[in-house]
Amino acid sequence: MNFSRRTAAVAAIAGTASLALVLSGCASDGDNGGSSDEPITLTITTFGTMGLDGLYAQYEKDHPNITIKATNIDTGGNALTDWKTKQASGGLPDVQAVEEGWLGSVMEVSDTFTDLRDYGADDIKGNWVDWKVQQATDSDGRIIGYGTDIGPEGLCYNGKLFEAAGLPSDRDAVAELFGGSSATWDKFFEVGKQYHDASGKAFYDQSGFLWNAFVNQQDEGYYTADGELNVEGNSTLKNFWLQLADAQQAGLSANQAQWDWGKGQAFVDGTFSVFVCPGWMLGVVKGNTEAAGGDASTGWDFADVFPGGASNWGGSFLTVPTSSKHPKEAAALAEWLTAAQQQVAAFQAAGTFPSNIEAQSDPGVTGPNDLGAFFNDAPVGEILGSRAQGVTAQFKGPDDAIIQEQVFGPPRTALDAGEADGETTWNQAIELLNQLVG
User: Signal peptide position in this chain (predicted)?
Assistant: First the structure.
């Protein structure tokens, strides 16, 4: 995976009233009781739009002796830097959110995280999808994190732009257009060329998110399952990189700045018409569209299809660093925040699709909601549940995030800008790999 996921600039999606309705049923769900009545302040660091901010007040209400001091960092990349800095120098919070893409680095120092089995993790590990628990389990069998969300990917598209280009706009027809359950990247780029030929416009915002999705779809990404680097000499990855270069030359990439999109303007002015969307990205699309003056009438929709099959981008965990002075209470907070009803509330607030099995089928996820209303009344929870089928855990090595952002980031930028061709930018990436990772 790992692009710096989510931005703090995205407003919460659910209104205060709808969140309160969900929270009214949250008081006892997933709460192991904490400990004494001694006044305690618990610190928690999260990032981006995890959908947790509206939950803290309820926990404080149910636990009058506990005060939660929350810090939210704007992006996953900045949060990773913050964690690494404090991991080395001290100052970690009681509860630390960890992103999937950091797992390689985290597992190298897993003994600096509390083994949550000491606080009942073995009794509740069946609450989450199996592969999520596996990701949070180190080589000694220690469970060091409770899963928040997962990031199954579907395809966001602008139905109005599709219609104008002579393509279908109905989401079922769009899914079939891309190949349905047999959707491939070749078909994706073929449709992109059809769109570009008809409209004269770019098809997708930039190549980086497509690259990210493709890497995540492989059985082995930047590392093999036994921890060896898997980039140089990897013909599968190189061939897709060259395919991205061909698509750029064909005018399919809009060369947008990641996490900016002209302050959201590109989502409303027809700059591009498709966008890869894990669950949490739905809130990013909605927030950026609204920031630029758009709304549901802008035309964005969400289809149950993804080129190349199942892909997971992102998802996080709540961990308890061993430096916490209140590990029992911190573990109780992490457990409560990741229990079913709280994951439902987070989904309604930010589109973060639950890793909790019970939450995935909750009407608050599968039924109508404000997020789905923005996407032409799409059943976003049902679609994400469908897209989660077939996702497996990919091993993430210690420098996975560095490879994604610092090794492939600059060459990808040059590729999208048309400054260098596919072979040149691939060789640039390999050179950076040898410099930064070895």
Answer: 1-27
Amino acid letter, residue 432? L
**Are the beta carbons of 412 and 432 closer than 8 angstroms?**
no
Report, in angstroms and rounded to the nearest whole number, the Rg of the chain calculated over CA atoms: 21
Q: So what CATH class is 40-150+314-366? A: alpha beta
The first and second tokens of residue 360, run together, are: 């995935």
- What is the three-class DSSP state of 154? strand
As annotated, the residues of the chain forming the CATH 3.40.190.10 domain(s) are 40-150+314-366, 152-312+381-437
* Cα–Cα distance measured from residue 73 to residue 415, given in angstroms and rounded to the nearest whole number: 29
SS3 content of the chain, % helix, strand, coil (to 5): 50, 15, 40
Query: Residue for token digits 């894990």?
Result: 278
Place of tokens 């929870």: 381
Cβ count within 10 A of residue 89: 8
Q: Concatenate the DSSP letters of all residues of 258-309 into one string.
A: TTTTTTTGGGTTTS-SEEEEEHHHHHHHHHHHHHTT--GGG-EEEES--TTS
203 vs 261: CA distance, rounded Å: 14
Q: Where are the beta strands (DSSP E) in 187-245?
A: none
Beta-strand relationship, 40-47 and 95-99: parallel
Is 0.85 topped by the overall pTM?
A: yes
Neighbours of 184 (CB within 10 A): 13
Closest to 295 (Cα-Cα) out of 370, 188, 193, 393: 370
Q: Which CATH class is domain 152-312+381-437?
A: alpha beta
Note whether 143 and 121 are within 8 A (CB): yes
One digit per residue, the tens of pLDDT, for the chain of length 438 reads 444 444 333 333 333 334 444 444 444 455 554 556 899 999 999 998 899 999 999 999 999 999 999 999 998 889 999 999 999 999 999 999 999 989 999 999 999 999 999 999 999 999 999 999 999 999 999 999 999 999 999 999 999 999 999 999 999 999 999 999 999 999 999 999 999 999 999 999 999 999 999 999 999 999 999 999 999 999 999 999 999 999 999 999 999 999 999 999 999 999 999 999 999 899 899 999 999 999 999 999 999 999 999 999 999 999 999 999 999 999 999 999 999 999 999 999 888 999 999 999 999 999 999 999 999 999 999 999 999 999 988 899 999 989 999 999 999 999 999 999 999 999 999 999 999 998
- Spatial separation of the C-alpha atoms in residues 406 and 403, rounded to whole Å: 6
